[in-house]
Every structure is written in structure tokens, then in C-alpha cells.
Amino acid sequence: MKTLHIRLCAVLLLCGLLLGGCSHSFPEYTLATGGSTAPTEKQYNDTVQLTEQDIQSMNGGEALLTYSDEGYVTTLVGKYCETPIGTYEDAVASLNGISSLIGLSAGSEFFCVYGALDNEGYTYYTFQQKYAGLTLQYATLKVVVDPQGYTAGLSCSFTPNVGIAEEKTFISASEAEAIVREKFPEPEYRYYTDFTQKSAVTFNARTVECVVVYTSNPEQSMSFDMPFIEHFVTYAGEYLTSVPTSSIGSELSDAYKTDDYFKNLAPATFTGSVTLFDGSVRQLTVPVAYNAQDGLYYLADIERKIMVADYAAFNFRNQLDFVTSADNSAWDGNYLITYYNYICAYDYYADMNIRSIDGFETPILITVNMCDSEGKPENNACFYGLNNGWACFGSSQVNRYGEALDVVAHEYTHGVTRCSMQGTLYANETGAINEAYSDIMGNLIEMREGATNDGAWLLGERCGEVMRSMSDPNAYGQPAFVGDVFYGTNVLTPARTNDNGSVHTNNSLLSHIAYGLYREGMSLAEESKLWFTSIELMTPLSDYDDIYACLIFSAKINGLNQYSEVITRLFTEAGLLGDREQRAYETTKSGCGRVEFKVSDALAQGADTVAVYTAQADGSGQYLLSVNPDRNGRVSFLAPAGTYLIVYIHATQQGNANYGYHENGWAAGTDGLAYIEVAEGRVTTLNDIS
Questions:
Q1: pTM
Q2: I need a labelling partner for 259 at 20 to 30 A (CA). Which of 84, 85, 270, 290 fits?
Q3: Helix (H) or strand (E) holding 637
């Protein structure tokens, strides 16, 4: 399926950043009776409200609805309005009859972000939510209209029943920054004070008015982690939580004229060889550009608007040091293959009519030689957002990730999902889903290009460092289903120490389903249609129930209904529908037993983790897995029958403190640990820790 993005107005808010264009913006619609900013219990409007039963009747009983923990509809597959939709104003008006279902309160406002028309004749309208002048974090709604002009469904992450009093007091930006600085001192953390803003956020089923403070992410050396952090401080001055993000800020001045960098360049090409990780040699032909003014060749693609520059100069010195050559006779092989693979990823999405990551041809900057502020090389690859008019990607020289098209396309997809979804909450389920989509699309792009014959759906095999297997997740320390060995529960405080709630570990739950569809006979072309369209349907807070509905919706849009039963079966087998937290503790597996204990409420508030080691004959331990206390302080995991050593790692600002399980229970240190016996089908209960 190809999607044509239509610029409804040239001012577009994508990923929280303002892209340049015409001088006027979308009108904002407040459909509340009297336009009140009154308390949350006030109804959005006076229109008679539809029930789920009404919607089922409208769709012959075949509508699909998913709900949030608060009881509001988050995804609806089916017709919900009898009035034809021809404009984005009509799309907003269609919400009148379902405002109670999606939790819209009086005073809710919207602005349209973009519209899209696909080759199947479906139209997508994307809106963001405002209240009392605030753009709400992760609050996105997508209205889908069928080829006949009637509503076909929606997906929604609107903040339900928000009510922010007009005169409510809140701490100042400097006060919020001081609170964050006390917890995360400089210079390790770099602060972006120009972007501190008031907002509201729904997190762990709690809607909170807050001040958002942005910093760098000094711990983003983990492969594919996010380079910035959003810190949320309540209006009362309580540090609430933080989540990694790929972008900073809510606005970007249109003063940045990135297109100007391409104006004086003339197209050229370079053909040369690159020696790959396995010693093989590959011939590549790539576009380059000649600048007659300085007589230099640039590693740049004029048509696609892609340039290569130095990471440190751009990120730490606010300057662009482009990669150039005096005679176009040779280029660094690492730069060359990375650049080539980004072009491949670009072309894949361009074939879907998404040019660049957002569909609006935003120039792409590939920054090489990733490092920290002191110039120390980073072992990483990342998408780090829309910055100074560029869609920015980072590439390291201490690894060979650039050689692997699936890794490069993984990062490129982070940019696409960020823009399509209007941001993402990079924690717990939503973070794992985000990572899964990057793995899935990365693999599909690699296989389309013929860059691998990988029938096992591995990630990174073309750079000599296999990181994950979508066909056999356990092989690389990931779960195949909820509660499986290696499964990580949702956490109260996402942080790098707990993988932000197992976002990398648990991404296999969804990517394994993508492999399952391939195993069941779905072609790569069909998978591309299915997963790409589902991206267009997702919101920043889409959970597994929503993803299931989006895939069923996508199958319907793309004429793939024959796979709906397979999708349902695979989601059921993976345990991804319904109460996943409870299912995780009830799961059994042949040859495995369960270990359980509780941590105190105080510890549950932190970012602690539990390391499990297989006991060796010499008394040492071989690392097996890590698990996290869940939001209720429960630690529960499956492990193959055997003997284990267990260490509780308590994360503090001064560093990690290790507490081992000894004969008399938990104690500081890891010497003389007790042997924990795990028997098949049995639960081993350890002492609680406080």
C-alpha cells in the first residue's frame, strides 16, 4: 500500500517540532458547550452519545473496540458516524457522538497535524489535543475515512477527562529545572532550558499536570537507545518520572533553512569498493554532490536531501562539518556503506510515498563518529529527532552497524514511527512496541533489498553481531510469549538500569508474531502493507490490544482479511490480549519452574533490577537473565529447572549497590551466595527484601 501525504496546511506539528511553511496554522476547534474550561465531569457536548451496542448495530456486530485501563475506547474498527466526512472539520465533528466513549471533557481542543490518502482510497486525519492552551503529551487522535467518505474507525490516545483550571498555580520553569538538576546534576546531564514547557501527561493510568524538562541522555550508549530524556515535574513540585525520547522541545523556528545547503550543489556519483566485516568486498555506486564555490565533493544526495556530517560538531559545537572530498576518488568505507544503507531505507519508505521520515521531504542528516561531550566514541546507532530543520541519525565508528541494512532501517523506522504517531512513550509496553516495529520494518527492508538470505529473521547478521532473533527469541535472551523465560514486567520507574521497562527485551513479543505470519505463508510484500499501514493507525500510547486492532484494521484496508484469524491466533498464543500482568504470573513452560519474592514499596518506586546466574561447578555464576520488580513490587520469573544464584541490584544516584541472596536471606555483597533450586512446575518463594 502506498500512502500519499497531503499537506493540508504548510504549518505542521510533527514529533513536537514545527516545520516551516506558510504563515497561517490550522484553526483550533473547541466543540464543548459554551467553550467551558470547567471541571472534568462536564460533558464534551450536548449531542446524544452512542454506546458500544449502537456502534455494533451500525456495523452488523462486526466492530472491534479496545479500551484503556480507565474504560475509554482507544481503538475502534468500524463506522461510528452516519454523516459523510469530507474535511478535517467534518472529522472533528464526527467525535460529537462518541465523546463519552473516548473520554473527551468540556473544553477539549484539537489541531490537525496532517492528512493522508492511501492507494486504497482511505483517508487519515491526525489530530493533537490541547486544553487551556496546553498541547498535551502523547495526546493524539487519528480518524480514518473509507473510500465512500464515511468513518471507518479511529485510534485515540487523548488524555481523558482532563480539566485544568485557568487560574491554577504551577511552579516556574527555573524551579522545575532546579528540581531535576538536584536529582540529575550537571555536567553529566546537558539541559535544554529553552524547551522547558507546561503540559499534562497520562502515565501509569494517571493524568498529571506537569512541567517538562529536557536533558541529554548520558546512558544512551546502549544500542538503539534514545539520546534525550523528558523529565516530568508536577505543578506541586514533585519529581514524577522520566522517559527517554528522540526529540526535544515542542517548537522549532522556521529560521532554519536546511534546503539552502543543497542549492549550490551539482549532482555527481561515486563508484568504489567497501571491505565488509567478513572480509568480502562490495562495489557501491552512490550519489555525491559537487560544490563549485569551494571545489569540494560532498557525501550528499541532492534528490533525496541527505547529507553526511560530523556528530560532535553538530551536537556539541552547533556547527555543520560535512564529510567532503577534494577529488571524489575515495571515501571512508564506513561512511560510504552507512550512507548507502540510509538511501535504501529512504527509498523503501519513498515507495510508500513517505519521502524522508515524515512524508514532507525534511532533509536528513547522517552524523558520523558518534561520541560523548568529551569526544569519547559511543558504541551506538540512533535516531535523535528533528533538530535544526534536519531529521538526524547518529552512526558510530566503533562498531559496524552501518553495514547492516536492518540496523540502519531499524533506526530510520524510529523516525517514521515518531512522526506518524506524533511521539512515543518510550517505556514498558509502548516502548517495546516501538522497538518491535523498528526490528520488523528493518528486517522487511533488508529482505526486500536482497541484502540477506536470512530466513530466521535475525537482526544485525550483516555486521557480524547478531542482536536478536525474531524466529527464536530465546536464543538471544528474549521471550516468545508473556511470562516466558526472559520476560520483563512493566515497571513504575523506567530507566536504563531496567531497560526502561524491558523495551528491548520484550520487543520480541511482537516481532515474533511478524515472523509467525511469514511462517504461515504471508509474503514479504503483504507483510510490508500490513505493518506499514498499522503504523499509520497507531498513537503514542498504543498497547498490545491496540496493536492487535490496528493489524486487524490494516488487514481490512489492504484486502488481507484472510489473515485475520491467523493474527488473532498468534496474539492469543503470545498472551498479548487481555490481562497481561496477571497472565505473566500464571504462565508455565515445560522444563521450567518459577521464582518469586516481593520488594518494599520504597524499592518498587526505584529502577532496581534482579540478576539471575546459573550456578557453576566451581561456585561461580553464569549470567542468565535480568528481571525487574513490577509496579506492585512483585518479582516473578520463569527459569529452566536447575540451580541459581540471585543478586538484587539497587540503583542509586551514587551507583549500584548489590545484595545477594544468602542462606539467611538478603544481605549486602555477592560472596557466599545461597544455591536456589528451581524444580519443574514448582514455585520457589524467596524472602522479601526491603
A1: 0.89
A2: 270
A3: strand 634-640
